[in-house]
Design goal:
Order of helices and strands: HHHH
Number of strands: 0
Distance between the termini: 55 Å
Helix content: 55-70%
Largest sheet: none
Length: about 120
């Protein structure tokens, strides 16, 4: 699990450094998944024990910790929001500028205003 997390972080950072919009979005997605795996790994894996017990006296030492699960759910929602925002923003930038190369986007001024 740790190796998968490291590979996802490395691939995500590598893709974030690229010039293409598509690679940037894929990098954001991989980075979000790597963060989810990191939270899952840091929370510890508890097999076959639920986070909550309705009746009886459970062995508290063996119960799964619900906090990492709640953090992962929050991270998934935040990650999807960031991905949707990035896709809409990059689509708008492409519509206005006509390019998907990030290196060509050095200024916010339009070409017509300088001519």
């Amino acid at each position: 699990m740790t190796i998968i997390t490291g590979v996802l972080y490395a691939a995500g950072v590598y893709l974030l450094m690229q010039r293409s919009f598509i690679k940037l979005v894929i990098g954001i997605i991989l980075f979000a998944h790597a963060s989810n795996f990191f939270l899952f790994t840091a929370g510890g894996i508890t097999r076959a024990m639920p986070a909550f017990v309705h009746n009886g006296q459970p062995d508290v030492e063996k119960l799964a910790d619900p906090l990492p699960q709640a953090l992962i759910l929050t991270a998934i929602v935040i990650g999807l929001g960031i991905q949707a925002f990035a896709i809409v923003l990059l689509k708008r930038v492409y519509h206005v500028t006509g390019t998907s190369d990030l290196d060509k986007l050095r200024t916010t001024d339009r070409e017509e205003e300088h001519a």
